[in-house]
Amino acid sequence: MKVVYLDNNATTRVDPEVFEAMLPLLTDQFGNPSSAHGFGALAGAALRNARRQLQALIGAEFDDEITFTSGGTESDNAAILSALQVMPDRTEIVTSAVEHPAVLTLCAHLEETRRVKVHRIPVDCQGRLNIDAYRAALNPNVAIVSIMWANNETGTIFPVAKLADLAKEVGALFHTDAVQAVGKLPMDLKSTAIDMLSLSSHKFHGPKGAGALFVKRAVRFHSLIKGGHQESDRRAGTENTPGIVGLGMAAELALKFMDDETPRIKWLRDRLENGLVQRVPNTFVNGDPLERLPNTASIGFERIEGHGILHLLDRKGIVCSSGSACTSGCAEPSHVLSAMKMPYGAVRFSFARDNDQEDVDRVLEVLPSIVEKLRDASTSEPDSRGAEDLHCVPGLSGRRTGHHS
Ligand SMILES: *Cc1c(COP(=O)(O)O)cnc(C)c1O
């Protein structure tokens, strides 16, 4: 059975061209870029090339603004911990309620162990940041703002350039976890006030265990990992040369394909959303209808949780992910859906350039009967959670749909 892979926000397939680019570094060109001999210098040249490929994708002004890391999680940790170190008199962090655990778990840890105050800015039922709460949280004691560019569960895009401008007004550093945005959205960092940005190779057809942190030249930075002088003293440890070369090639391909692939992927995503909404009654699409990643569909089905759907789809060879809105007692609680006050769980389908219309039509063929089966078996009454408790009632402010006759 051919697997229909629609979980590209979790990870993506390594592009064959990326694999080809990595192979020499795993075989003949195994040198250490820090070595004094010409053999090591070959690997060093490959790193410089990768840095320039990545610089082009994110629109950085200088290639030395890019430090290679082990991925998104390390970059997020490095950015936030560096800010607290370079601004020791500031003890507050502003972030959002819907960040990736790489940011939220670190913030909770800092709150417990270092008496750092953390402001978690709430979102509305479409996942949009509460700008008034954001402005209110900003004050001269904030060392760093860390707000993601796009959310991994709903695809909602935050206005990071504008948020960075506001952070500057109180002298705070601005970091963005752009792991879901890099390679999917055009970027020109040199024209923004964003100080630091995290990205991860395996979210855009590069290998796992490779990523980068962008740090604007004017920004002081303290290395998270102490050791040798690699990466201009910003990240110690012998460079993952195959991973970095793969990341560079993945960046080059993302840039090359972006103009043609973005509308095609969006068309597939919209075909799935519209098709489901037409075929399955009481279904709604989560996230900001306008400011949303082109590849992500988060779909809620009234009265049923996402994990049941996920497992039945998995048996039919369709791979996606799910989250539920409850905070206890259910299989996969999602802090994102909870922050959006979603009454039901959701299934996330995330597309990439190796998906096609056949994949979408396969989901449209099998999912309606799965939902019907689960709803028939479901013991929960319609609206059992009490819509009056919810700030967001699907059908009033969400984009829930009834049966189209
Ligand atoms: C995947 C992801 C990460 C973690 O990146 P890794 O390279 O897997 O450590 C961080 N933030 C977001 C938004 C992600 O989607």
Automatic annotation (TrEMBL):
Residue spans of biased composition, Basic and acidic residues class: 375-391
Residues covered by the Aminotransferase class V domain: 4-363
Region (Disordered): 375-405
Keyword Transferase: yes
Cofactor(s) required, per the database record: pyridoxal 5'-phosphate
Superkingdom, natural source: Bacteria
Gene Ontology BP annotations: amino acid metabolic process
Catalytic reactions on record: (sulfur carrier)-H + L-cysteine = (sulfur carrier)-SH + L-alanine
Enzyme Commission identifier(s): 2.8.1.7
Function: Catalyzes the removal of elemental sulfur atoms from cysteine to produce alanine. Seems to participate in the biosynthesis of the nitrogenase metalloclusters by providing the inorganic sulfur required for the Fe-S core formation.
Quaternary structure note: Homodimer.
Protein's recorded name: Cysteine desulfurase
Gene designation per UniProt: nifS
